[in-house]
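Box 3.1. Reading complex inputs
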Amino acid sequence: MRDYWLSKLFFDLQSPPLADEYRADRNAVLARYPLKPAVHAAVEADDVAALSRLVNPYLLRFYFLMAGMPEADFLRRIRATASTPTGVSRG
Amino acid sequence: MAELVGVYAASHGPMIVRNWKMLAPAEQESLTSAFSELGRRIKAARPDALIVISPDHWVNFFIDNLPAICVGVGEAHDGPPEPWFTEFPHRKMAGHPPLAEHVVSTALERDFEPSVSYKLALDHGFCIPLWKAGLDPLPAIVPVIFNDLEPPFPSVKRCYAWGDMLAEAVASYPDKLRVGILATGGLSHSIGEPDMGRIDEEFDRDCIRHFENGDAPALFDFLNERLPGAGNGASEVRNWVAAHGAARGRGFDLIRYDPIPNVYVGCGFASWTLG
């Protein structure tokens, strides 16, 4: 099951002007998307493990590349999810 | 009547472009050699039009509306929108509406229900093989998008039948036209998954053997069992299966296969000898 608005955010960020805006002011862009609080928190925290369970893997990979996470860092985090079965925390 | 003059398959990993300067010399040599031979074979067949089967990497479609299969019937297609692929020389590519519409009508007659688009942007999945194979000028392009990215996917058996239908559509097209079919994507790779970067070389080589053997039911059984474990990108082997169907399951000829770690992909290239 995909999280629609998270997927929509990642999909829309393929637009270079929106990606530029996002990198400059992430919160201003996030405010336009009705993300659930736990999902919003996962985005703010760059929580690869949590977000990986909510979107298509290609969009996930695109998002972190666009957001500027180094490839080695992304690989380390996504590979670590193999042993972390939990999703977005509900706290 | 139109003639099917060639059927081909090629990997299309974006790192082939994005990461080219970081590839090991042996990796560059492998890809350059494979694309060069692929291009030589396509050019020798002199296609007027090329039906290109590729996934859409979230360029034209989203989960609002995600077709299993879409045929591009437009007069022209936009070039790749990826900002890292500005080297691709064509911002517009000519389509072939009459052939595309004939593919759609043939599909409907054969109980397929493809989606149709009059305006598509063709992403790296289409354009890396076209560019690296040196096809310039390009033949007219009829894009056929298979959903290989987001489940649920069309079955491999259905993809084979689609390829068979494509060959029938070409054979029944009333005008004189030389038509090729190019499937892109695969073989094994994993993108954005916990095993990202893993290449399942055993799967790839078994897969190639099944294409060579030409036993379609055995190929379906193999893929139904092993495709889910070969990484999400391996789903693009469905496109190869369609090409195999277009060749009626015979004549597979491997051009080259190498696992390319810096591309994250088991890179395969093939053509089918048409009898």
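In summary: Chain B is about 35% helix and 20% strand.
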